């Protein structure tokens, strides 16, 4: 009788243990059960975007059409500031989030992030940011044009300025700090340029990346005796201002994809001085702790 009780007790204990841990078959289906699906469910099948109409938002709309596994997903439009705030909140709580992202950006200096692979190349490869001037500017202000033509820096350079902006430093001061720490690079940009005069009108889109580049080049021009007049504008109006001669220059043309449509619209009406930064990129970005590597790892909404 005691042996029967012992056997019953042992059998019950084993059953409870299996119930708690799950059977081998259940575990297998649980593992496949599925991190990818849970990401979509937790995010309510929504990507976190920025301003509607931005090049990366247009590309993301295309991604939703090109990737069959993104059926039922949508992208929310807000602003760059809201996107980074939501990203920071998610990271603080180790929650999933997928944002429209680009490099250079201070968030890559602040957080451990990764781009999702884009097998269909909807977002294109790496991009470059070009300096563009109005027609006649090189003849009217050759020394200023030479500085703008020589202006070359790296994503890491730009991100260091952007991080200062994010931490509350005023744009002019952040630019001055960078110049003070990188005077050797600045000397290359201004080599052979005598002290100038006159005002250089700079247009820029109000992204931290372009606030950074525009204020840095503005302070460098001031070092050489020029005055500067800075004007924020939307992407289309910025290109139009250069094309129509209302502004002299910009350092903000993301090519070939992000600003490609605007570039082509005004291509015959300005002078392209070439890339001031190589290695720019756009795409979908997630915190490094998320167990997905590719856009194709996501699953459609059921």
How does the SSE layout of this entry go?
Layout (H helix, E strand, L loop, with lengths): L1 H20 L2 H8 L3 H8 L3 E3 L6 H12 L7 E3 L3 H13 L6 E5 L2 H5 L2 E3 L11 E8 L2 H4 L1 H9 L4 H12 L4 H11 L1 H7 L9 E6 L3 H16 L3 E6 L2 H9 L5 E7 L4 H7 L3 E18 L15
Parallel strand pairs: 1-2, 6-7
Antiparallel strand pairs: 3-9, 4-9, 5-8, 5-9
Distance between the termini: 55 Å
What characteristic shape results from the CA principal axes? globular
What summary fits the major beta sheet? Answer: 5 strands, antiparallel
Percent of residues in helices comes to 40-55%
H and E order: HHHEHEHEHEEHHHHHEHEHEHE
Helix/strand/pairing category: alpha/beta
The overall average pLDDT, rounded, is 88
Strand % is 15-25%
């Amino acid at each position: 009788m005691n042996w029967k009780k012992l056997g019953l007790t042992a059998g019950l204990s084993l059953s409870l243990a299996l119930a708690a841990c799950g059977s081998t078959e259940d575990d297998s289906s649980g593992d496949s059960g599925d991190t990818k699906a849970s990401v979509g469910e937790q995010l309510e099948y929504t990507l976190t975007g920025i301003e509607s109409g931005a090049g990366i938002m247009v590309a993301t709309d295309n991604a939703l059409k090109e990737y069959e596994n993104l059926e039922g997903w949508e992208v929310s439009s807000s602003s760059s500031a809201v996107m980074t705030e939501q990203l920071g909140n998610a990271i603080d709580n180790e929650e999933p989030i997928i944002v429209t992202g680009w490099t250079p950006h201070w968030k890559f200096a602040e957080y451990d992030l990764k781009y999702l692979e884009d097998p269909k190349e909807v977002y294109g490869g790496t991009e470059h940011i070009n300096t563009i001037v109005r027609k006649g500017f090189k003849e009217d202000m050759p020394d200023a044009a030479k500085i703008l033509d020589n202006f070359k820096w790296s994503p890491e350079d730009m991100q260091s300025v952007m991080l200062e902006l994010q931490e509350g430093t005023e744009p002019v001061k952040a630019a001055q700090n960078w110049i003070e720490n990188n005077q050797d690079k600045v000397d290359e940009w201004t080599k052979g340029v005598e002290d100038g005069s006159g005002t250089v009108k700079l247009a820029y889109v109000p992204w931290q990346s372009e606030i950074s580049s525009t204020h840095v080049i503005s302070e460098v021009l001031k070092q050489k005796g020029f005055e500067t007049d800075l004007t924020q504008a939307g992407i289309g109006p910025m290109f139009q201002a250069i094309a129509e001669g209302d502004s002299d220059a910009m350092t903000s043309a993301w090519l070939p994809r992000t600003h490609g449509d605007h570039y082509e619209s005004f291509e015959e009406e300005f002078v392209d001085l070439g890339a001031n930064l190589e290695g720019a990129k756009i795409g979908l970005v997630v915190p490094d702790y998320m167990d997905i590597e590719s856009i194709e790892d996501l699953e459609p909404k059921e």
